Amino acid sequence: MTLSFSKSRGLQGSIGNVGVPPGPAKNTLSSVQWLRAIAAIMVSIHHATYFSDLLSGQTARELWGFSSWFFGIHIFFVVSGFIMIHTTHNFGEAGAWRQFLARRLIRVVPLYWVLTTLMVIGVMLSPHSLEIAADKVQYILGSYFFIPVLRTQGDLRPILGQGWTLDYEMFFYFAFALAVLVPRRWGISALTLIFASLVWLGRDLANDTPIIFTWTDGLILEFLFGAFVGLAFERNWRLPVWGATISILSGVGLVITNLQGPTFLVAGVPATLIVGGFVLGPQLKDSPATGWLTRVGDASYSLYLTHVFVLNLAYKIWITIVSEKLPPSVFLGASILASILVGVVIYHLVERPITNFLQRRLLGSLKPKTPFSGQAVGANS
């Protein structure tokens, strides 16, 4: 299957998370953590096959006959929309929007800025390591502050290539924060109308207008799909085992069948079916067999942002030391495993300590105090 973005964006060589907030909230479902782990691993596989193909001289980008590992990014977007609904119960309360944004920024920005800074230092030390045709100061500032920028003609990525998805995430976060100003029924209705209108108005735009292109890209609808799943979950809509199984298998089947069309349909709908099957079906509990998925789900943001660093380093080590002594398939497996392990380590040593520290220092004074107008739709937080 060829998954191309809406409008004119093509598949990128570097992608990233999915700005999915790191670490589980208190009421995060195990199934959501598994989905985050699966999505992050899929993205890692997508890039690992690129380096494996370099070693083998092929361009198949396949593992086990499947070439759409990039699909993990769409699972990330849908999960993000679900989490925003599932963890935000104070719509319409005074200061709720500020608390929401503070939580999102604390969870997303620090690690991204650390890794972006490493990239900036690397480019300064080796200017020819990355082709940047744009004004470099403007480009770097845009990269730091989640402003969509063109690296070169047609290449809409920040200096940390994986961060392009965070441009979408941040737009959704700020739009969602505005929705939080009013009771949930009004806020989500307005968000739906505005996003649908933006996508319609920008359907023919090219990415030579990067900000408008990103903010009108059909990909933003995938966050809404996840939000709708979240609303269904909050209203106790549930699928029986057979219904959840059909939903998941239908989503997987649609990915495999090489459908063509707008990405939010050919990828967003299958991702929604998969996420819906997981979270609306009977809730599964962690076991020794699945506990590792939960741990990787906790670290999915770290894995998402760091895996390309690991894969690049693994590739350089491989061609220097191993060369043709072992087949590329060994590199593929070892590099994916190394990416996962490094992601988990970075989560425990860097991401979680920073997040916990900032939450303790900054969030206490931002708790909403009085309702905006009556009771917000949904349970109180």
List segments where confidence is low: pLDDT < 50 over at least 5 consecutive residues: 1-6, 8-26, 369-381
Fraction of residues in helix: 55-70%
Helix/strand order, N-terminal first: HHHHHHHHHHHHHH
**Rg from Cα:** 20 Å
Mean pLDDT figure: 87
Largest sheet: none
- Number of helical regions: 14
Principal-axis shape: globular
| Quaternary structure classification | single chain
Number of domains: 1
Query: Roughly what fraction of the amino acids lie in strands?
Result: under 5%
N/C terminus separation: 42 Å
Task: Give a description of the structure.
The chain has helices spanning 30-56, 72-86, 96-125, 136-144, 164-179, 184-201, 210-215, 220-234, 241-256, 263-266, 268-280, 291-298, 300-322, 328-362. It has 381 residues and is an all-alpha fold. Helix content is 62%, strand content 0%. It has one domain. α2 (72-86) packs across α8 (220-234) and α8 (220-234) packs parallel to α11 (268-280). The chain is globular and about 60 Å long. The model is unreliable at 1-6, 8-26 and 369-381 (pLDDT under 50). The chain is built from 14 helices and no strands.
Break the fold down into its secondary structure elements and pairings.
Elements: H1 30-56, H2 72-86, H3 96-125, H4 136-144, H5 164-179, H6 184-201, H7 210-215, H8 220-234, H9 241-256, H10 263-266, H11 268-280, H12 291-298, H13 300-322, H14 328-362
Helix pairs in contact: 1-2, 1-12, 1-13, 1-14, 2-8, 2-11, 3-5, 3-13, 3-14, 5-6, 6-8, 8-11, 9-11, 13-14
